[in-house]
Amino acid sequence: MKLAVFGGTGRTGHHLIQQALDAGHDVTAVVRDPARLEIRHERLGVEQRNVFDPDAIAAVVDGADAVVTSLGKTSRQQPHVLRDGTRSIVAAMKATGTRRLVAVSNSVHTAEAGDSAGRRLVQRLLRLPLRVPLADVSDMEKEVEASGLDWTILRPARMKDGPRTGHYRLAVGEHVPGGWSIVRGDVADAILQVLDDERVIGTFVGQAT
C-alpha cells in the first residue's frame, strides 16, 4: 500500500512510519522540517511541504492508497492547526481523487452516549484549561466528517510514549469503556489495522488499553 503521512515527525508519526515500512508499505512523509525525521529507508520518501496549501500537497497525495493525518499541537498562537491543516488535506485529496483518509483525534474533546460518569467528569474538568486545543480537535473532526471521503477517525485515549505492545482494545462508534491511556506505538498499530477495514469507513474508532 502507498501511504501519505502528515505529522510523521511527531511522536506518534515516527512509530507509524517505522511500522508501516516494517509491514512492507511505501511511505511518503509530508513534513515541515526534514531534518527532524531520523528514519531512512528505500521505501520512504520525504517531502517538505506547507500543509496549509492544498496545491503544494496535491502531488504528494496523488496516487496514494491512503492518507494518514497526525498533525501537530494546537497553541494559542496557532489555534486552528488541526482544522486548517485537515481542510487543506481534504481539498488536495478531492482534487486528486484520493479516497481513503484516517485521522488521529482523541477521546477527550467530546462525550458519547455510552460514556461513563467518570469519563464525562474528566471531560468537564478539562474543558476550560484545554478549551483551545479541544475546540480545534472538534473542528478537525467536522472537516473529516463533511469531506465525502472514505474516512475513519481514530480516537485514542491519553497517549503515552512507548513502543507497540499489541495489547489494546478498539471500539467502533464508541469510546473504550474504562480505557484511560494508550502507548503511541499501539496507536500507530491501530492506524495500520483500520486502513483497509471497510467496516470502519464513515465512523470513529475508540482505542485504549
List keywords for this structure.
single chain, 209 residues, Rossmann fold, two-stranded parallel sheet, 10 strands, 35% helix, NAD(P)H-binding protein, Polyketide_Oxido-like
Provide an overview of this structure:
The chain has 209 residues and is an alpha/beta fold. The protein has a single domain, classed as Rossmann fold (3-Layer(aba) Sandwich), CATH 3.40.50.720. It is built from six helices and ten strands, in the order βαββαβαβααββββαβ. α1 links the parallel β1 and β2. The mean pLDDT is 92.
Briefly characterize the structure.
This protein is α/β, with parallel strands linked by helices and 209 residues long. It has 6 helices and 10 strands, in the order E-H-E-E-H-E-H-E-H-H-E-E-E-E-H-E.
Tell me the CATH superfamily: NAD(P)-binding Rossmann-like Domain
Per CATH, what is the topology?
A: Rossmann fold
The CATH C-level name is: Alpha Beta
Q: Share of helix among residues?
A: 25-40%
Poorly predicted tracts of residues:
none
Q: Summarize the biggest pleated sheet.
A: 8 strands, mixed
Q: Total helix count?
A: 6
State the total count of DSSP E strands: 10
Give the averaged pLDDT, no decimals: 92
- CATH architecture classification name: 3-Layer(aba) Sandwich
Could you spell the SSE succession in H and E letters?
EHEEHEHEHHEEEEHE
How big is the Rg?
A: 16 Å
**Secondary-structure-derived class:** alpha/beta
Q: Domains counted in the coordinates: how many?
A: 1
Shape label:
globular
> Roughly what fraction of the amino acids lie in strands?
15-25%
Report the end-to-end length measured between terminal Cα atoms.
Answer: 27 Å
In spatial order, strands of the major sheet run 3-2-1-4-5-6-10-8
